[in-house]
UniProtKB/TrEMBL annotation:
Domain Aldehyde ferredoxin oxidoreductase N-terminal: 5-207
Required cofactor(s): tungstopterin; [4Fe-4S] cluster
Record-level Gene Ontology MF annotations: 4 iron, 4 sulfur cluster binding; aldehyde ferredoxin oxidoreductase activity; electron transfer activity; metal ion binding
Lineage, top ranks: unclassified sequences, metagenomes, ecological metagenomes
Designated gene of the protein: aor
Protein name, UniProt field: Tungsten-containing aldehyde ferredoxin oxidoreductase
């Protein structure tokens, strides 16, 4: 009986070629539950303090949660490592079937250290581990890797996570691609994989994931499906994916345009679900065991990019490679998104880096103003395409300049460029311009992996009219946002131990998640307060790690761009002063129980039972 867990990690040292199984310590399971919790605690314990993310001793972990691989809907898997882009912790989530397959191989996670002396891939077949040569896979795209490995293993059902050329070249925002169209996108986990000379991990498993109480679990699953079916937000996700957020963000004045200079874009409809449906979509698709089916498979039937097969261009990508670059041709945006996927680049950071380069070129700050013969300027699809290839291959000129991300590029170009370098702690920000919403701003400033939209952004409260504790929220209020942000950050951190999909949280209630967890594992989290306490423990664990790695609390802020007034839209004229940001962060630190310097206080750590126990395998 395994009750949702196998209680085993598969450990692989690529330097020696050894692999072994390690038992999951009881205290780790009790305090950190799975997924993000396991990953952050192990990162703290196993990675050397202030180590180089691209050194052999960085740890690369593929983690699951207790509900991964069960009938619980909308569950995923995550990669945890130290980010080469930010120098902070990195947990990046992906759907598809790779996560469940880790469980079917009999593990709760796979932990990889060391560096192979030449390109390799891992073949894990139901617990048997083989390190295979991958010289012939080096240099090929993520799609080709999938196809080639499946042919070599003579099994089309094998589940594969791999990197593209960007990961091989250790581009700081290279992604890990999981089965064609699911990516662990943010923060550069693909570069860590490339630094280990690891092109891919292929899995095949047959072990069943058992649950503690089958009857109760099936009841909880039924309830979860009903909640998802009845929820209007989920219905809209099923119909349009996240692309329908483009007109919403545009109307709210927070859609990035021209490297976040503005918050509205006249071409918004074209790059949204409206334009995509017209030109692209053929059918809906889903990750394993997800009834939401937010994915839309598409095919470009005509024009310059004819023949491109693509998944939905989801909101973040549509905005970062579309409106942010002033490109409104949805077929071109689809083409750019597809290029990112096959080259192995995070489309969000790529859009941020290209937007930065276009503005730098406009201000005559780039040493080379052209790429592949095309002038680097807003609206140029050819320049955007040239830059994507140059970055992935680390070509001389703008390729090398941008391959380290916006922060490093701005440092090289000088003070003037730093004024429009849009990143927080090195992570290019998401497509939600914070000038129109102070809660969103605070959540980006304090997010644990740098400016990230998946760490408790109060979108509903700031922009959607969702009340907070019975009262309406003023989207531009500087105070009163910290408690909302902290609540959401804790809640999502707790659910990331189950490794849920963010979209599932739009439809499933906390009580249902708790029922799923309890009936699956036989363990209990003591209600919503228990979820908050678990989330707070993980959040503080992450903060301790980030402080140890040298982040400066002064980086809990917004980039200078958002100190400039918005030129148009419903929040025209709004900007953040240094005093606004200071007030917001001070309130946040105080409610978190952190010192004025942003360090978790002793009382806080004691209350959260963050002990000195360490994992050593
Ligand atoms: S909602 Fe979409 S991304 Fe999330 S698990 Fe379902 S299909 Fe995958």
């Amino acid at each position: 009986m395994n009750n949702g867990y196998f209680d085993k990690f598969l450990m692989i040292d690529l330097s020696s070629g050894n692999s072994w199984e390690a038992a999951v310590p009881d205290w780790l399971k009790a305090s950190f539950v799975g997924g993000k919790g396991y990953g952050l605690r192990l990162l703290y314990d196993l990675a050397p303090p202030q180590g180089d993310p691209l050194a052999a001793d960085n740890v690369l972990m593929f983690m699951t949660g207790p509900l991964t691989g069960t009938l619980a809907p909308s569950m995923r898997a995550c990669v945890v490592t130290k980010s080469p882009l930010t120098g902070t912790l990195l947990d990046s989530y992906f759907g598809g079937s790779f996560g469940p397959e880790i469980k079917y191989c009999g593990y709760d996670g796979i932990i990889i250290t060391g560096r192979a002396s030449e390109p390799v891939y891992l073949w894990i077949d139901d617990g048997r581990v083989e390190i295979r040569p991958a010289r012939k896979l080096w240099g090929i795209s993520t799609l080709e890797v999938n196809k080639t490995i499946k042919e070599e293993l003579k099994d089309d059902s094998v589940k594969i996570a791999c990197i593209g050329p960007a990961g091989e070249n250790m581009v700081s925002f290279a992604l890990i691609s999981c089965e064609y169209n699911r990516q662990a996108g943010r923060g550069g986990a693909g570069a860590v994989m490339g630094s280990k000379n690891l092109k891919a991990v292929a899995l095949r498993g047959s072990k069943p994931v058992r649950v503690w109480d089958q009857g109760k679990f099936l009841e909880a699953v039924e309830l979860a499906y009903r909640e998802l079916k009845d929820n209007p937000d989920i219905k809209s996700l099923t119909l349009t994916g996240t692309a329908s957020s483009v007109p919403f963000a545009n109307e709210a004045g927070v859609l990035p345009r021209r490297n976040y200079y503005d918050g509205v874009f006249e071409g918004a409809d074209e790059i949204s679900d409206f334009g995509q449906n017209k030109h692209l979509w053929l059918r809906s698709d889903a990750c394993t065991g997800c009834p939401i089916r937010c994915s839309k498979m598409g095919y470009l039937r005509s024009g310059r990019y004819r023949g491109t097969v693509s998944d939905i261009v989801e909101y973040e990508t549509a905005a970062m490679l579309g409106s942010n670059l002033e490109i409104s041709d949805v077929k071109a945006v689809t083409h750019l998104a597809h290029l990112c996927d096959t080259l192995g680049l995070d489309s969000m950071s790529a859009g941020g880096a290209i937007g930065f380069a276009m503005e730098a070129a406009e201000k005559n700050l780039l040493p080379q103003q052209r790429v592949c013969g095309h002038e680097i300027k807003f609206g140029s699809v050819e320049a955007a395409e040239g830059l994507l290839r140059a970055i992935a291959l680390r070509e001389d000129g703008p390729g090398i300049l941008l391959a380290g991300g916006v922060r490093r590029a701005a440092e090289k170009l000088g003070v003037q460029a730093e004024q429009f370098a849009v990143h927080i702690k090195g992570l290019e920000t998401p497509a939600w311009g914070p000038r129109g919403a102070t809660g969103i701003a605070l959540s980006l400033m304090t997010a644990d992996r740098g400016g990230c939209h998946q760490r408790g952004m109060p979108l509903g409260e700031d922009l959607g009219g969702v009340p907070w504790q019975g009262r309406q929220v003023d989207r531009l209020a500087v105070t009163g946002k910290a408690e909302i942000v902290i609540h959401h950050q804790n809640y999502l951190a707790a659910l990331d131990t189950f490794v849920k999909c963010d979209f599932g949280t739009f439809g499933l209630s906390p009580a249902t998640y708790l029922k799923l967890y309890h009936s699956c594992t036989g363990r209990s989290l003591e209600g919503e307060e228990g979820l908050q306490a678990l989330g707070a423990r993980i959040w503080n664990m992450g903060r301790l790690y980030n402080l140890r790695e040298g982040i400066n609390p002064a980086e809990d802020t917004l980039p200078p761009r958002f100190g400039e007034p918005l030129p148009s839209g419903p929040c025209k004229g709004h900007s953040f002063s240094r005093d606004d940001l200071k007030t917001m962060v001070e309130e946040y630190y105080q409610l978190r129980g952190w010192t004025a310097k942003g360090v978790p206080g002793e009382e806080t750590l004691k209350k959260l039972q963050l002990t000195d126990t360490f994992c050593r395998f």
